[in-house]
Known about the structure:
By secondary structure, the protein is α/β, with parallel strands linked by helices. The protein has two domains: 76-239, Rossmann fold (3-Layer(aba) Sandwich), CATH 3.40.50; 247-457, Rossmann fold (3-Layer(aba) Sandwich). The protein is 47% helix and 12% strand. The chain has helices spanning 10-22, 35-39, 54-64, 66-75, 90-95, 111-114, 121-127, 139-146, 165-175, 209-229, 237-262, 271-283, 288-308, 330-337, 362-371, 379-392, 412-424, 441-457, and strands at residues 8-9, 49-50, 79-84, 100-103, 155-161, 181-186, 198-200, 206-208, 318-323, 340-346, 397-402, 428-432. The protein has a four-stranded parallel β-sheet with strand order 4-3-5-6, with helices on both faces. Strands 10-9-11-12 form a four-stranded parallel β-sheet, with helices on both faces. Helix 14 links the parallel strand 9 (318-323) and strand 10 (340-346). The two termini are 32 Å apart.
Amino acid sequence: MMGELRTISLADWRGRYAQLRESGLDEPGYGGPLERHFDGGYRRLARLRFDPSPAALRLWNLVLTEEDRLHQARRDGRIIVGCMKDLGTIAVLAWSLPRVVAFYPDGCWWTPCIMEGFTPLLKIADSLGVGESFCPVRAMLGAFLSGSEFPEPDLLVCGVGATCDDFSAIAQRLEATGRRIVWWEVPHRRRPEAHEASVLLPGGYVASCRSVEFVRGELERVWAALCEAAGGLPLDAGGVAAGIRRANALRRRLRQLRETVFLSPRPLMPSLEMLLAEMLAIHYCSDWDEAMRVLGDLCDEVTRRRSQGLALPAAEAVRLFWVNPPADLRVMNLVEECGGRVCGTDYMFTHALDEIPEDLPPLEALARMVLADPMTGASADRAGRICAEAERWGCEAVIVCRVPGASHCATEGIVIADAVRDRLGLPVAEIDVPPVADPIEPALRTRIGAVIEAARGRRK
């Protein structure tokens, strides 16, 4: 494997796993061959190509065994909190409490992809009046009613307001099935008026102090509900501060990984594994300790590859900034097959990558993170951060991936594309990706290939 690395198929992983075992592979308790997940129903794995490293194997096994960890938490008598929609803030608050496990049922939006449609989740959503006009996160409804994806949470918390309208409607439909939800308001992040005091948020946005104070009050209500669900625990600000420090430790490790990979002149880790790695920041895949170890292994792997001159075979690949996660994971492979590499991202939760201020009262710090969510403000604000990040990472083109049915994707792509062209002069493509993109793969190749060729043309 000197000089050049190759991604491998699921079938290839059988021999690769045997080779690693013979060489003394050190595996965690959730480890094992990758193909077992295909046997468990994750059929899309057969269409993906994977990084061949032990670090990547551990990452995939961590992500694909989260359901097992949640069921084990239930058997252990731990409190399970289902956080919904805020993607990264309420989970920090919940994980600050002892014997509490927080996760995002939102993650079910990838189930139609990973199971290639061989799941009843969407049919259940259809039966509740939540059909194909909604974002694929509607699979969450089916997951709750079938009980097939995760144990029933002891507490559900959902942010509403300046969030995805589709998700709000789906969560309300979920509440109508008899589940109690603690709702909290996420206000629109508006530009402060001239007479208002304002603060600079992580990530570079600005919010009024009044907005921060309002969100802090909402978080106090959520915190009280979490403490009550955890057995009537006292409202311990010190525990929240410790939870913030743990979150920041993971975010710093993820930042190290992203900077090593994105700034490297040669590709050190495939875009697919990097996407999964970023997802760990949202709620640690239900295990902070293991998420830290997995990110540490990935950092060690890319550092080793860089020092030994190893890289994936795409030295001339076009550096792409990718906006929004694709509904079909296969598209991340497709980008590289077309001659691109992802070197910058906005997967709709950049606020979960930014460090949380540790020099503020904990709830005020978390309130600022809520307002730093790129989805809570104007599309023009989000476009501004995308432009700044694309320039920072040296990206040569931008791809905006629209989520089918998602209300926020109707016009924001146009705003982002116009901003990128006006400010950076880079080629931009907007693409629509369904949960299983095989029928339109030729069209996707054409669209992605066109923006890559346009970027190559600018090199001359």
